[in-house]
């Protein structure tokens, strides 16, 4: 591959991943690289970033592709390959593993990124080779590598180590899981690099790079993703709030205020240069949210709740309920100004109150809602239901839902599953959607759009 | 004009005026100058976005023209405005004999024009750094205005004609990303995301701004700040706050930043009660 081919293929891959890279960005990048040169990898990286990126949420995807198309080394790298020559060919004995784990643990505790990256590459080289039956059939596996290294043990060991040097428990747990998480990502990146080397970058780019965080499915989020998602909530709420206030202001220009306009015109010789308008009166509604908090949809529910409560000033009154097969009000967990992490933890703990027998039962939960909170819904309230509509083949209680729908002013249902999975298995999506309009809401982008549209 | 001759030249010269740029910042600043493209800098509060523009102006000897954005900023404040009051006076003072044509030409002349930062920056013949600060605070309409200025570096004033830049300013736009800027504006800009610096760089910034601070305390300080930033606080400490903290420690003659010392001075960096609670708990301060 020539440099130009590589450049074109790299941009093509970014476009395929959903980054808007137009011809003008392409030309900028070329002009910029002409000035900076190809001599230093870091500068090439920063130059591409400056000319192609448009927002920080694209960064991770951008970096992953850059690693594939402009790998920091080839094969085992120069330094390592030299060192390997005077070692026996097989370096995967129990003793080797123990020694390697030891070294890795040290690097994790020191948080030495450069060494961790080397160790990630070394780990894949040693423990992740998947011999193939013929030439071109061999491959590399991040999964096998990580299994051999047993990351859970590494995390525990790291927590202990950090505690020993004076870290608090929560801080240590958090740091350990972030560091081990990012080491896992390095291993995954190195496996991708090696596969790309053998099969060509285009193929690998198509199959293994994950979408940007705002397009990542809630239902397929991993632990590190969840943390990244959680960190997005306040900035997202802030952006939404700004956008809403500005739109409100734009709409707010009410009727002309004659008296103020005339009075202001005195300063300009009686010519009314500036007009003044009466403010428009906004109408307030009350939002009532019902969230399925069972199993895999729990994450989706708590993100949506956090986002909604972060926007409380825009919304007026909000009441929130969680359910599995029973209903439980959680409004009180969202004290104004409360800490995000604490709230999430308390919310998770409260799940047990929403379950009686422990199997999701939408019909029963709806009935219990009307029983316990008959006056929660009224002509001023909007009803929002969050869930995958998978009710374990139990009675759907459609008439109950219809009564709820009729009691409220508006109603929506957000389903975190891809539309194509609706109605498969025990999903009663269409049945419920016939009563309450159902919207697909798989990722932050869709969630943001929805929240913006209903406000 | 050659703003910086290479990325490493940018690093050196920004460093000489007290701005310690990381490699990405230096490369991007070099490119903004060499390609004559506006630079959009995004990032959390207090990471040195505004300071970067000021540092470029100091390092290159160019004057800084600043447009501070806010909600409600309009063309009249950003670009130019006719001095209506003076024009009215002029019209009223005109004696009946004077033809309207004449008065008209007269009141739409340089004398009655109030230039605002964007126009000022474009008309200057000396090297200029144009800082459009906190651009996310403006309304979307202002972006249309910026678009015109940033793509052609010219402004059309219907009564006077088109004013084109004789010399392109070095343009820096900063944003807290409190809202997304339009794609059109972004396409015209180079993009730089500034984030909190790593501990090495932050220590260097602290030592350069508070040179009397003890080395050991400086090291303890930046590592404490890094741990605070890991806690998902509502308002993570900024570089400016790290520097404030350093000054406080120096003033109080604290020569060992242990748990008690952190607890006593935490108010300098954390502004929310719930953030303080969380820090006290997780850093085991009490
Ligand atoms: N790289 C750096 N080198 C030296 N000082 C720095 C650097 N970055 C930030 N600072 C210091 O941090 C202070 C705050 O930076 P600045 O005001 O530019 O932040 P900002 O990103 O514009 O924040 P805001 O979003 O609140 O406007 C500066 O006054 C400067 O003292
Ligand atoms: Mg600023």
UniProtKB/TrEMBL annotation, chain A:
Pfam families noted in UniProt:
VWA_CoxE
Name the domain of life: Bacteria
Question: What PANTHER family is this protein classified in?
Answer: BLL5662 PROTEIN-RELATED (PTHR39338), BLR6139 PROTEIN (PTHR39338:SF5)
Q: Could you tell me what this protein is called? A: VWA domain containing CoxE-like protein
Species of origin: Nocardioides terrae
Q: Which InterPro entries match?
A: UCP010256, Uncharacterised_CoxE
From TrEMBL, chain B:
Q: Gene3D superfamilies of this UniProt entry?
A: P-loop containing nucleotide triphosphate hydrolases
Which terms in the Gene Ontology molecular function aspect does this entry carry? ATP binding; ATP hydrolysis activity
InterPro entries cross-referenced by the UniProt entry? ATPase_dyneun-rel_AAA, CbbQ/NirQ/NorQ/GpvN, P-loop_NTPase
Q: Give the top-rank taxon of the lineage listed in the UniProt record for this protein.
A: Bacteria
Domain ATPase dynein-related AAA as annotated: residue spans: 39-189
| Matching PANTHER family | MAGNESIUM-CHELATASE SUBUNIT CHLD (PTHR42759:SF1), MOXR FAMILY PROTEIN (PTHR42759)
Full protein name: MoxR-like ATPase
């Amino acid at each position: 591959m020539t440099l130009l081919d590589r450049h074109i293929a790299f941009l093509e891959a970014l476009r395929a991943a959903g980054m808007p890279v137009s011809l003008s960005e392409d030309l900028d990048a070329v002009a910029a690289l002409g000035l900076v040169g190809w001599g230093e990898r870091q500068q090439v990286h920063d130059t591409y970033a400056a000319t192609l990126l448009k927002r920080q949420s694209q960064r991770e995807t951008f970096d992953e592709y850059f690693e594939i198309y402009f790998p920091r080394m080839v094969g085992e790298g120069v330094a390592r390959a030299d060192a390997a020559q005077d070692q026996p060919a097989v370096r995967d004995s129990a003793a080797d593993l123990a020694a390697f784990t030891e070294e890795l643990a040290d690097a994790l505790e020191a948080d030495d990124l450069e060494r961790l990256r080397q160790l990630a590459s070394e780990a894949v080289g040693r423990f992740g080779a998947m011999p193939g039956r013929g030439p071109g059939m061999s491959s590399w596996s991040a999964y096998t590598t990580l299994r051999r290294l047993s990351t859970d043990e590494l995390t525990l060991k790291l927590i202990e180590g950090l505690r020993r040097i004076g870290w608090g428990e929560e801080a240590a747990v958090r740091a350990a899981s972030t560091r081990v998480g990012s080491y896992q990502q390095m291993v995954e990146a190195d496996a991708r690099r090696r596969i790309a080397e053998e099969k060509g970058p285009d193929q690998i780019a198509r199959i293994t790079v994950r979408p940007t965080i705002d397009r990542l499915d809630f239902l397929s989020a991993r632990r590190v993703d969840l943390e990244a998602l959680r960190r997005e909530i306040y900035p997202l709420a802030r952006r939404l709030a700004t956008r809403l206030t500005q739109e409100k202001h734009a709409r707010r220009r009410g009727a002309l205020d004659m008296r103020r306009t005339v009075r202001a015109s005195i300063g300009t010789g009686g010519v009314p240069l500036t007009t003044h308008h009466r403010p428009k009166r906004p109408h307030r509604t009350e939002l009532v949210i019902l969230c399925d908090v069972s199993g895999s949809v729990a994450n989706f529910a708590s993100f949506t709740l956090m986002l909604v409560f972060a926007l409380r000033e825009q919304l007026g009154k909000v009441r929130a309920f969680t359910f599995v097969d029973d209903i439980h009000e959680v409004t009180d967990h969202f004290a104004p100004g409360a800490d995000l992490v604490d709230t999430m933890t308390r919310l998770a703990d409260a799940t047990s109150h929403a379950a009686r027998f422990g199997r999701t039962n939408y019909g029963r939960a709806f009935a219990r809602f009307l029983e316990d909170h008959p006056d929660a819904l009224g002509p001023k309230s909007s009803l929002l239901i969050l869930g995958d509509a998978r009710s374990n083949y139990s009675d759907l209680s459609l008439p109950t839902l219809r009564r709820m729908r009729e009691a409220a002013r508006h109603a929506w249902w957000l389903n975190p599953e891809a539309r194509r999975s609706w109605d498969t298995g025990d999903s009663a999506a269409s049945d419920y959607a016939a009563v309450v309009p159902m919207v697909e809401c798989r990722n932050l982008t869709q969630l943001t759009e929805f929240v913006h549209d209903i406000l | 004009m050659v703003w910086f001759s290479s990325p490493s030249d940018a690093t050196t010269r920004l460093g000489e005026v007290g701005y310690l740029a990381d490699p990405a910042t230096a490369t991007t600043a070099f490119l903004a100058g060499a390609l004559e493209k506006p630079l959009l800098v995004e990032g959390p509060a207090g990471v040195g976005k505004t300071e970067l523009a000021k540092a470029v102006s100091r390092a290159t000897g160019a004057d800084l023209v600043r447009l501070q954005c806010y909600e409600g900023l309009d063309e009249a404040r950003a670009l130019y405005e006719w001095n209506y009051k003076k024009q009215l006076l002029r019209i009223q003072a005109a004696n009946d004999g004077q033809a309207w044509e004449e008065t008209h030409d007269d009141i739409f002349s340089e004398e009655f024009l109030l230039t605002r930062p964007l126009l000022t920056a474009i008309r200057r013949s000396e090297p200029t750094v144009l800082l459009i600060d906190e651009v996310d605070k403006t309304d979307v309409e202002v972006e249309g205005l910026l678009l015109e200025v940033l793509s052609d570096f010219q402004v059309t004033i219907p009564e006077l004609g088109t004013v084109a830049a004789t010399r392109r300013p070095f343009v820096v736009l900063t944003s807290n990303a409190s809202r997304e800027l339009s794609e059109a504006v972004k396409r015209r800009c180079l993009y730089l995301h500034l984030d909190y610096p790593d501990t090495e760089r932050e220590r260097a910034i602290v030592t350069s701004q508070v040179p009397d601070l003890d080395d050991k305390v400086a090291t303890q300080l930046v590592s404490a700040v890094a741990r605070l930033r890991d806690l998902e606080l509502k308002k993570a400490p900024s570089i400016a706050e790290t520097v404030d903290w350093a000054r406080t420690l120096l003033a109080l003659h604290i020569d060992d930043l242990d748990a008690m010392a952190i607890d006593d001075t935490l108010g300098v960096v954390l502004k929310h009660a719930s953030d303080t609670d969380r820090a006290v708990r997780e850093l085991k301060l009490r």
